[in-house]
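Task: encode each sequence below as structure tokens.

Item 1
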Amino acid sequence: MTAPQRFAAFFRSPHHAWLALLTLGIGVASANVPGMIAAAAAYALGWIFLPDSRRFREWVGRRSEAAGAEASVLSRAKFDEERAKVYRQLSASGKKAYDELARVVEEVRGGSGGAESPHAGRLGQLAWTYLRLLLTRETLGRFCEKENSSESERGIAEARAEIEALEQRALDAWERGDAADAGSTERLLQSKRSRLAGLERHLEHVRKAESDLALTEAEIERLFDAVRLIRADLVTRRDPDDLGTEIDRTTAHFHRTRDWLRGLEFDQTSPDIPDEITAGIPLRIER
């Protein structure tokens, strides 16, 4: 804590209130000039020595710890609420997939020390990433089902054929000297070209969504297989350090997955959740 922060904390503390009461308050109550001067001097000395005193520093430390604990509880409650909200948006098959992953991760967490394990937070991160992937897959799937790229391609082909016909019509009108027909056809062409540009942008958007959907499905399979491998290692390996290495390796692989999800417009969940929050929350979510 810097000096300005320490003085600001002292000003808002009960220590300052008592200092003011016992110095300035008594000085005013004395109703004489020497008493007031002595009170003001004592008050000034209090500002010099009390903010640096051991008792005040301990009080600030306890207050900071209490505020940190309260913030942690609120953060966990907020995250737990967000997880439940995401879970409720899943289909029955999506909920079943998450429940299965949560069961496997809970086995690993329990076998590696429970919520107090140094790996608990990273295992919770895997479960949260999996839940986000499931919701992203369903959101992308609904979009791709409604906005099919093949239909967009047919619409673009029809629009291009229509534009070619209008371009020929405009050229014929200019050649025969019909300026009125040529002018109206050119204005219609501008509208059709603008529509074509919009259709092409939409097709690009749909193709990206289809690509993202394929990658999401692959990441879901990869993450589940990775968690099952960790469970197998828990059974076969006796050295906890070996298990920790495997967990570290697996979670590191999915950092890029979380970065990729962060950039998707279809993902509206919180990407960065501290390990201390994911470590202390039960993985299973009530339906």
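Item 2
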Amino acid sequence: MSIVLDRVAVWVDVDGQAAPKTLLDGLSLDLTERRIGVIGANGSGKSTLLRLLNGLVAPGTGTVTVDGADTVRAVREVRRRVGFVFTDPLSQLVMPTGREDVELSLRRSVRNARERRARAEDTLDRFGLLGLADQSIYELSGGERQLLALAAVLAVDPQVLVLDEPSTLLDLRNRELLRRTLAGLSQQVILSTHDLDLALDMDRVLVVDAGKVVFDGGAAAAVGRYRALSAAGLPSAGLAPGLAPAGPEAGRPAPRRQEQR
């Protein structure tokens, strides 16, 4: 699978500003690796980049194609190939229970109701969610909802799986389950994340900053670049006037000033 971004720019009008805000600027990428990560600070453009890949965002200039299918002119075809998992699963779980949500995903591709029910149960069982299939989605934990959203997308067997910060709501156990699940998938996986351990599992990692890809390469080198970029943006280590220095004396009460007689 090859996803190609050719000189793509995205901008958005902002109330009170005369000029539009640029979200992405002049990206040209050919995304072919099996596992691709996108890392960067909040507001850097990561989510916008991912949403371009299945037509949730249209480029202002340039083109995005999925195996030659344009994400604007052939959006339905692209979305059959590219599944998208949002950061907040409640933004995509629309049915009262997990069983119903997965069956809804399958409604277009599996016409027979019994077969659809069996496929849904197989998918839920794969993620250890079959026992929760008939619970309200509002009774599930954040991690269970995230895994359910992933199951609903994978039920239709897309060729590419795009995930926007999928581990944000997960505890350690479910995060490790997610990592193992992603590692075992046959699909091409493209994800954004603040979880640098998850980023290190990727074959290729893009570092995005201020709407541009500032690094594109191996996972370890990309994480190193991102750490350096983040450190460079930290405030000075100097202390504000009147604060005691850190070190062995930190935490001790300040000496009393000698009163003049």
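Check on item 2: The chain has one domain: 3-230. Residues 239-261 have pLDDT under 50 and may be disordered.
End of task.
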